[in-house]
């Protein structure tokens, strides 16, 4: 009996596909939670949004995370204007704190950060003076954190733009798209 070639190709394709039964940790050579610990990153609790939106929307295997502003370790908003009362180092730290907040949202939504396949796209908005031109150096605080946590899978496409004003006077806001 001859086996139809199209069925054989279909079977071979099926057998070579990655299945959902694989552990999410299989995509990393380390555990993301352990990596956070080694970096000294403690995720804050995720609070309900204060307006008519949600923290994350899932469409297929993509997560669209709402913009987050920076909060210090005590939970207070980090406010200011780059080029006026904040320097690049302070902005970088604020962007790092936004990364921590976005990681908390991901953890809350997924339950396991090892499910993150890739950080796809980041949009960073920096509240700054008209002559401030170092927005990308500020948003590096976010990008560098994603790479420290997820390795090469943390590298992403990005925009870093200046804004005249941001909600409540926060110094930056960052949104992102994540593949799971």
3D architecture notes:
It contains four helices and five strands; from the N terminus they run ααββαβαββ. The chain is an alpha+beta fold. The chain has one domain: 2-Layer Sandwich (60s Ribosomal Protein L30, Chain: A). It has a five-stranded mixed β-sheet, covered by helices on one side. α4 links the parallel β3 and β4 (157-163). α3 runs parallel beside α4. The N and C termini lie far apart (43 Å). 29% of the residues are buried. Mean pLDDT is 90; it is low at 7-12 and 14-25.
- Helical coverage, percent range: 25-40%
Structural class: alpha+beta
CATH fold title: 60s Ribosomal Protein L30, Chain: A
Q: Unreliable runs, pLDDT <50, ≥5 residues?
A: 7-12, 14-25
What separation lies between the terminal Cα atoms? 43 Å
Number of strands: 5
Describe what is shown at a glance.
Helix content is 33%, strand content 20%.
SSE arrangement:
Layout: H1 5-16, H2 32-39, E1 56-59, E2 62-68, H3 88-110, E3 118-127, H4 135-150, E4 157-163, E5 172-179
Parallel strand pairs: 3-4
Antiparallel strand pairs: 1-2, 2-5, 3-5
Helix pairs in contact: 3-4
Features:
single chain; 180 residues; alpha+beta; 60s Ribosomal Protein L30, Chain: A; five-stranded mixed sheet; 33% helix; globular
